[in-house]
Design goal:
The chain is α/β, with parallel strands linked by helices. 35% of the residues lie in helices and 24% in strands. It has 2 domains: 134 residues, Rossmann fold (3-Layer(aba) Sandwich); 186 residues, 3-Layer(aba) Sandwich (Chemotaxis protein chec), CATH 3.40.1550. The longest helix has 23 residues.
């Protein structure tokens, strides 16, 4: 998460077996209730970060990989709560807001404007109610563990082939609800197989990648690299990842009935660095950081996001996965 110094880490547990996680921001003024919420976060696949009502909007301007916001009410006047919730919703409409109240009776006292702004309201102490909100808005899509592991593996191979002399680190995979684009570089690549269909994006900052090219840390040999060389490197990286995906999962078979496949508009707002794939489904995200052991280069940070907005059928994944393994065993396919 960017501007991480502005917030305090609540809980950040290591992901086991490529377990999918999600980053959330917590705004809670009651210390006892904060401690209880921390326990809940530790019991779920959530990485919690604490912010104050004063700093929340500033944090959201810099954070591009969040899943949700946990918001609490202030004692007394509620006008400030309404204004804050509406400002958060206006700033990051895609992020669900979970509002904590102390009792069921308090729900009826909430302003209508506040009820219409938040995604869900939960009563303090009712853990199952809160768990249902998290599952509904964040973990409503199952990503098989070996799928996540293989994507990470062939992406790491692509990074190590595209860059040289740099250390490559990857954060544990996580779910994001963000539609904000990171940096100036953005690559969009369609992906499909017999059980999934959607897009992969790579997002990064141009200057840092150009510096890596200039310092001979990539396969390009440009003496004075410009944005075209940066684009070339990003395209080559995306092609290698696509090759790994195709080798591992094959390509979609032609529909024997000749049906027209569903398409949805992709909306990009460059001024706001915003992209929409026509769905509110969460995206699977990997964050890669490339660092120079000699400390001569700024780190290159690249986000890889997957949104299978057109078809996602994990129930067909096991069958497809087995058929690809059979082809590899028989020698008809070779691991990328």
């Amino acid at each position: 998460m960017n501007s991480i110094a502005a917030i305090n880490v609540l809980a950040q547990l290591p992901a086991a077996n490529h377990g999918i996680r999600s980053k959330v921001v917590v705004v809670e003024h009651d210390k006892d209730k904060l401690a209880a919420l921390k326990q809940f976060i530790e019991s779920c696949n959530l990485d919690g970060y604490q912010a104050s009502k004063r700093t929340l909007l500033s944090v959201l301007k810099h954070s591009v990989d969040l899943g949700a916001i946990f918001l609490s009410l202030a004692d007394g006047d509620r006008s400030g709560d309404v204004e804050l919730a509406q400002a958060v919703h206006k700033s990051r409409k895609e992020l669900p807001i979970f509002l904590r109240v102390d009792s069921h009776a308090a729900v009826s006292d909430l302003p209508v404007e506040l009820k219409n702004t938040v995604s869900g309201i939960y009563v303090y102490g009712e853990v199952e109610q809160l768990k249902e909100l998290v599952d509904t808005f964040l973990f409503n899509r199952h990503y098989p563990n070996d799928f996540v592991a293989s994507v990470q593996d062939f992406t790491l191979s692509a990074f190590r082939a595209a860059f040289r002399g740099l250390q490559v680190e990857v954060d544990p995979p996580y779910i994001v609800k963000d539609k904000i684009i990171y940096g100036e570089l953005f690559s969009l690549l369609p992906l499909e197989s017999n059980w999934c269909r959607g897009y992969m994006t790579l997002q990064s900052e141009e200057d840092n990648v150009r510096e890596a090219i200039a310092m001979r840390k990539t396969q390009l040999s440009a003496v004075e690299p410009n944005f075209r060389h940066v684009n070339e490197l990003l395209a080559e990286l995306a092609n290698m990842i696509w090759g790994g995906f195709k080798t591992r999962y094959g390509a979609a078979a032609i529909d024997p009935q000749g049906r027209v496949r569903v398409e949805v508009p992709i909306i990009i707002n460059h001024a706001r660095k915003y992209i929409s794939f026509g769905t509110d489904d969460p995206q699977l995200c990997f964050k890669f950081t490339l660092t120079d052991p000699e400390g001569k280069l700024r780190p290159v940070v690249m986000y890889q996001k997957f949104i299978f907005s057109l078809d996602w059928s994990p129930e067909r994944y096991a069958e497809s996965n087995q058929s690809v393994n059979d082809l590899v065993t028989s020698g008809e396919l070779e691991m990328f």
